[in-house]
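Running this now, will post back.
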Amino acid sequence: MMYVDSNVFIYPVIYDDRVVKEAKAAKAILLRIAEGELEASTASVTWDELVWVVRRTLGAGVAAREGRKFLEFPNLNVLSVDEKAVAEAQRITEKYRLKPRDAIHIGCAVENKIDKIMSDDPDFDVVKEVSRIRLGAV
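Update: finished.
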C-alpha cells in the first residue's frame, strides 16, 4: 500500500507532461492506480488541496471538474481525517516541525499503517515513520 500525496494529483492538471517530468511521472502513477496495478490511499484533504490549487491556477470551472474526477477516481482509497489522524499529525508537527497539511498526510498514513508516501515534496524526507518515494521511482 502506498500513500499518495496531493502533488501526484495536482501536477498532471496544472503542468504540461511533455515539459515537466514530474507531471509525466505523476500521470503514470495515477494510471497504475486506476488500472489496479498499484494499491494506493490518500486523505480526504487531498481533494481540498487539488481543488484549491487548480482553482487558483486554472479557474473555478476546471477546479470543479478535477474535484469531481478525484472523487470518482478508480481504485483509490480515500481516508478520513479523524481525531486520531489529527492527533498523530500534532505529534508529527511537534517532532519534525512539518507544515500542518503535510503533517495531516503523515498522520493519516501512520494511522492506517502505511509506511510509504509517493510525493515530490522533500519536506517528508525528515519523517522516520514513512519513507518518501519520489515521482518516477515506482
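The helical segments are 6-14, 21-34, 45-58, 60-71, 83-96, 100-111. More later if anyone needs it.
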